[in-house]
UniProtKB/TrEMBL annotation, chains A, B:
<dbReference type="Pfam" id="PF02615">
    <property type="entry name" value="Ldh_2"/>
</dbReference>
<dbReference type="InterPro" id="IPR036111">
    <property type="entry name" value="Mal/L-sulfo/L-lacto_DH-like_sf"/>
</dbReference>
<keyword id="KW-0560">Oxidoreductase</keyword>
<comment type="similarity">
    <text>Belongs to the LDH2/MDH2 oxidoreductase family.</text>
</comment>
<dbReference type="InterPro" id="IPR043143">
    <property type="entry name" value="Mal/L-sulf/L-lact_DH-like_NADP"/>
</dbReference>
<dbReference type="InterPro" id="IPR043144">
    <property type="entry name" value="Mal/L-sulf/L-lact_DH-like_ah"/>
</dbReference>
<dbReference type="GO" id="GO:0016491">
    <property type="term" value="F:oxidoreductase activity"/>
</dbReference>
<dbReference type="InterPro" id="IPR003767">
    <property type="entry name" value="Malate/L-lactate_DH-like"/>
</dbReference>
<protein>
    <submittedName>
        <fullName>Malate/lactate/ureidoglycolate dehydrogenase, LDH2 family</fullName>
    </submittedName>
</protein>
């Protein structure tokens, strides 16, 4: 087979859901995970696409995820709604608590969603986009695994700690960014190691805290945060707000718990949602129209808006279907046929 | 006079307050502004210290601040408390609304303070430190003047948009960061222009969007955000959340309104406050103790914590007094004697 295979979103989503259901994951959880993975693939966001299936199955095989976890929403009427994922995937916990978060935010202007004890694959763009679809601005963040040294240090303490923001736009894809607060992803360094090529300067330090371009020394040492001490401070903030503040794992504990960076980490997550129509009310101005003036001026000077490549890929996929390479489709079929047994093949 | 002059905090604060009162600023506002400026000087945070007095007086002389503005707090019982600064200084508006913000945050876990129509000199560390003193974590942000181009662009649209975070520590100064989301401050480029020295690469682009090390070309062009497209996205988020969302000026409008970057900008500000004890409650863990584990591990590997230089200067100043250079003290005395007339000297 040498030709790409084109699937509809629903076909791809259904196939992925069946793979997880066959592996013992409860139906609603499998559906939520499949929705995110199919969305990632649709958006040509390959790191959250079908490539993720194998990683998720490895966590299942390792017994590090609770297959039948049913998220429990706790809403005491405060600004902070909580959902216990119970050691299951974060995606279904978010879905189960989303309506309550949206309703509370519209009512009071500002509300938080705390996700506890979840396996997260950090597709934070998915969450902030859904909230933008409800007309809400939002921030989302979570720790990960301690692989990043604070600026000026040499020992991994911080995670690649993703940070995402969504802002609703009228009649257009929302303004969405979602990035790791490390300069690079660990996987990128691993690719350089395998290829025997040096990594760019500024990505990492060796065990002694000295800058290195040797991928093996970088993997033995620590990655660096983006933007020097400023990015380091933002990554630390993410540890504190979505780890310590929630009483959930920070990146160091998440790594100690799983014992490897090869499996998805288990920790909490924090989402802050804001209703611009509530915040702007007394001003008499339309916050979305105001936002458009800035966003259009950014795009108008030729600067790229974040997520534009993703949205362009999505528009194509919705018109023409989602194209998988022969290799991707073959692996998908292998997982459909063999389930967890495909991992050992 | 060639020797430094040492003042107590209260003496310095009192002198600054009198300068503003003599210039026609209402007593409570003068006191609030003086508290921040004296605190900046105490912390050796020179850009917010006595150096600021002249800038504030210039805004007064230009008629761009409402001298007798009395902040109006609007609390409709939602998560977002608002205070109209009425074209006066932000500091007193923050002080007047702070108790309500603290009370609401403790009650519901999460609350926002919206400051409307204020003159801000962006000492955001001052606000998040006060909230940390009440045991709260907080984020603070505001736009400024459009002097920064978005990553990949060439026309100034974004401000130097400061971003601050505070986290309470037990028995220690809080964890606080406060930084501009531009690589450098405009004043730093101006200093290079006067000295005839090139600016470092990465600070700015010329009018055509090309990287430049020529300070004049940089001033005619645009500064750049820190951290490439990630910092640019964070700066854009600050425009949207603390400008568009509030129905207050973004940096472009603030510049159009004042017509110069030589005076303090007029705009709004957004503070998000969180009570870790509310967020952590169901976990049974102590969020402050958890935070200490990370913060101590960062410091323990020799990485500098943000604000440590400021806190060290404060400890010295509280023990030995606040030392002003002869030039600084002379200018202070000149403002005390002549008020606004000192500006033309």
């Amino acid at each position: 087979m040498t030709e790409t295979v084109t699937l509809t979103f629903d076909d791809l989503k259904g196939r992925i859901q069946r793979i997880f259901e066959m592996a013992g994951v409860r139906r609603e959880t499998a559906a939520a995970v499949a929705r995110v993975i199919a969305s990632g693939e649709r958006d040509a966001c390959k790191s959250h696409g079908v490539y993720r299936i194998e990683g998720c199955l490895r966590v299942l095989a390792a017994g590090k995820v609770v297959l039948d976890a049913v998220p429990q929403v706790h809403d005491a009427g405060t600004s902070a709604i909580e959902v216990d994922a119970g050691g299951g995937f974060a995606n279904v916990a978010f879905e189960d608590a989303c309506d309550a978060l949206v309703a509370r935010t519209r009512e009071t202007g500002l509300a938080a969603l705390v996700i506890r004890d979840c396996l997260h694959f950090s597709a934070l763009w998915y969450e902030v986009e859904i909230l933008a679809g409800h007309g809400l601005a939002s921030l989302s963040m979570c720790p990960s695994y301690a692989t990043v040294a604070p600026s000026g240090g040499q020992t991994p303490l911080l995670g690649t700690n993703p940070f995402a923001f969504g802002w609703p736009r009228a009649g257009a894809f929302p303004y969405v960014f979602d990035f790791a607060t490390s300069v690079a992803a660990r996987g990128e360094i691993e690719l350089h190691r395998r290829a025997g090529t040096p990594i760019p300067e500024g990505w990492a330090v060796d065990k002694q805290g000295q800058p290195t371009t040797d991928p093996q020394a970088a993997l033995d040492g620590a990655m660096l945060p983006f933007g020097g001490h400023k990015g380091s401070a933002i990554s630390t903030m993410i540890e504190l707000l979505s780890g310590a503040m929630l009483g959930e794992f920070m990146s160091r504990e998440a790594l100690d718990f799983t014992g490897t960076t090869a499996l998805l980490p288990r920790h909490g997550a924090l989402i802050l949602a804001m209703d611009p129509s509530v915040f702007a009310r007394r001003s008499g101005r339309d916050p979305i129209a105001e936002g458009e003036r800035l966003i259009e001026a950014i795009a108008g000077q030729g600067a790229r808006l974040p997520s534009q490549r993703r949205f362009a890929a999505r528009a194509m996929a919705m018109a023409d279907g989602i194209a998988l390479t022969p290799d991707e489709f073959e692996r998908l079929e292998r997982f459909e046929a063999l389930g967890l047994d495909a991992l050992s093949g």
